[in-house]
Design a protein that fits this description.
The structure holds two protein chains of two kinds.
Chain A: E1 4-11, E2 14-22, E3 26-29, E4 42-48, E5 52-53, E6 58-65, E7 70-75, E8 79-81, E9 90-98, E10 117-121, E11 125-127, E12 132-140, E13 146-154, E14 168-177, E15 181-191, H1 198-202, E16 207-214, H2 219-246, H3 250-254, E17 261-268, E18 274-281, H4 284-295, H5 299-302
Parallel strand pairs in A: 1-6, 4-7, 5-8, 6-9, 7-10, 8-11, 9-12, 10-13, 11-13, 12-14
Antiparallel strand pairs in A: 1-2, 3-4, 13-16, 14-15, 16-18, 17-18
Chain B: H1 5-30, H2 45-50, H3 57-84, H4 88-101, H5 105-125, H6 130-140, H7 150-160, H8 165-186, H9 192-213, H10 226-232
Classes of the chains: A alpha/beta, B mainly alpha.
InterPro entries (chain A): UreD
Family (chain A): Belongs to the UreD family.
Keywords (chain A): Chaperone
């Protein structure tokens, strides 16, 4: 049985949570004062008791977003995954469905596709030393649904010297269109190993993030983000290139540091309608700043900027 | 009563002759001279150099091992699933699945260009396997959005050539290693002799990578080095580049 379930539908023309259920260790909070009056959006905060997920916890949620609705799913603070007891793994699964006919008004069954928007903007997952974490998020979209999805992880509690020191992290994000057509399938697996440790594969970076933008309502935002990332990275790489040309001496070259923040964009899906941004950063703060800046244009739609 | 010795000897000789014939095909498939365009790609190495992630021979070796590990975890399952049932339905399903999985534009384009080339060549070269040509022709005319990604086609060709599954997966890692080492020499990170020495040394690690990731279904594909994905995606922003990816 699901740990949590939320249904958002249009009631009298406004996005409304018509069903909201959660049980320990999960709690949903749906504050009504996040967005200014008049903004058509439902904000959903997903909270775990104790501020984290303990060994063996299994949390599964289902979200249903109806025709033309807008919803934001976020967290109150970073999801901390505590140390594993034995080999128990903590799990979170999320099923999201965009339906075109979830509405009391049966006439809407005739409509082809919806124009809804779901924005999933959580704080990052932070796995403590020896933690084990599994997360699966399935999103079922229609071709004119809109999705903003942020999924990210940080290296651990720096203050305790934990740097990518956990046992196991697996994050699955699957996005499907109608008829189960796969649109975007991504699985990241970070596992403690004797050779090629996670820390080695992450080098000096402390946060890895992924942002997916899909849907007709996000076209302008997609273009803007792609442009911003391209400009930011081209500038960095140009400086790097010229300094290498002028200083072929490798001793001097090694004095130049790796960039603190790397990002790249790719388009995906039919006619390149989706954009994915992948980020590696040496600080969680820079990722927050980046997300705040890039997603700021969502404010009119959501009433508040994500990660404000 | 003892079995007629003649029969055993004949079947052994037939088996050994067909195995020798297939070795010629296998070696041709893995030879760098096969024009699949693998040498246009650096597997993110060029971007890694320009972002300073690789700036020493040790960095290079580590980077190559991570590329092999990520290739194995992400793409070997597609090679395996394809060679286990080398037919048109399976191959088309895997191609579409991989297209949704390889969301890094840079590596996706590289995969498509190498895959298309491999399929075209294999269909022309291995004429004793007519299904290579029929599958290819049927798929070129198809209304499905097939892309012709490299890993499933490699698996398909190996499967139809009757190659052993483990050898086929090892072969896929071999051609990846071969191409990234070659890219390293052309980027002047290592000389030809040093590259050969390094390649042989890495082969030991590559075998353990194979052991870990072999024989998995495509549904189990995952990335183990997300940093590589970020960096390879930057290839399009490079000021000056030698490689396509």
């Amino acid at each position: 049985m699901a740990t949590g379930k939320v249904v958002v539908e249009k009631i009298r023309g406004r996005s409304t949570a018509t069903s909201c259920f959660s049980k320990y260790p999960l709690k949903f909070i749906l504050p009504t004062k996040v967005a200014p009056v008049g903004t058509d959006v439902v904000w959903i905060y997903s909270i775990t008791y104790g501020g984290g997920i303990v060994s063996g916890d299994s949390i599964s949620c289902e979200f249903t977003i109806g025709d033309g609705c807008t919803a934001v799913l976020t967290t109150q603070s970073s999801t901390k995954v505590y140390k594993a007891i034995g080999s128990k793994c903590s799990e979170q699964t999320l099923e999201v469905m965009f339906l075109s006919h979830v509405c009391y008004n049966h006439l809407s069954c005739a409509r082809i596709g919806s124009e809804s928007l779901l924005v999933v903007v959580p704080d990052p997952v932070t796995c403590f030393s020896t933690a084990r974490y599994y997360q699966k998020q399935n999103f079922r979209l229609l071709s004119d649904s809109n999705l903003v999805l942020v999924d990210w992880i940080t290296s651990g509690r720096h203050a305790n010297g934990e740097k990518w020191d956990f046992e196991f992290y697996k994050s699955i994000n699957n996005v499907y269109l109608e008829d189960d057509k796969p649109l975007f399938l991504d699985t990241v697996l970070l596992e403690k190993r004797n050779i090629q440790s996670i820390a080695e594969r992450m080098q000096d970076y402390h946060a890895i993030a992924m942002v997916i933008l899909f849907g007709p309502k996000l076209r302008e935002l997609q273009k803007q983000v792609q442009e911003n990332v391209k400009n930011m990275m081209s500038e960095q790489l140009q400086i790097s290139y010229s300094s290498r040309r002028h200083n072929p001496d490798s001793r001097v070259r090694n004095g130049f540091m790796k960039p603190e923040f790397i990002a790249s964009c790719s388009t995906f899906g039919p006619e390149g309608k989706g954009v994915v941004v992948r980020i590696a950063s040496d600080s969680t703060e820079s990722v927050y700043n980046f997300l705040r800046q890039q997603l700021g244009d969502l404010e009119p739609l959501l009433g508040q900027s994500p990660y404000a | 009563m003892a079995k007629p010795i003649g029969e055993d000897a004949i079947s052994e000789s037939v088996a050994s002759r067909s195995s020798s014939c297939s070795q010629w095909s296998q070696w041709q498939l893995l030879d760098s001279i096969l024009p699949t365009g693998g040498f246009a790609h650096s597997f993110g190495l060029e971007a890694a150099v320009q972002t300073r992630l690789v700036s020493s021979p040790t960095d290079l070796e580590t980077h190559i091992i991570h590329v092999l590990d990520n290739t194995a975890s992400l793409l070997l399952p597609f090679v395996y699933s394809s060679l286990k049932s080398p037919d048109i339905e399976t191959w088309q399903r895997l191609d579409l699945l991989l297209d949704a999985t390889l969301t890094n534009q840079v590596s996706s384009k590289a995969s498509i260009s190498q895959g298309s080339a491999l399929f075209r060549i294999a269909a022309s070269v291995f004429t004793e396997i007519p299904s290579l040509k029929t599958i290819r022709d049927a798929s070129l005319g198809s209304s499905k959005e097939l892309r012709f990604h490299h890993a499933p086609i490699f698996g398909l060709v190996c499967g139809l050539l009757g190659m052993d599954p483990e050898a086929s997966q090892r072969a896929y890692l071999f051609v990846t290693l071969r191409d990234v080492v070659s890219a390293a020499t052309r980027l002047n990170l290592v000389g030809p002799m040093g590259a050969s020495v390094m390649q042989h040394r890495i082969a030991v690690v590559a075998e353990t990578v194979l052991e870990k990731w072999k024989d998995r279904d495509a549904g189990e594909a995952c990335q183990t080095s997300p940093l590589l994905d970020v960096v390879q995606g930057c290839h399009g922003y490079l000021f000056s580049r030698l490689f396509c990816s």
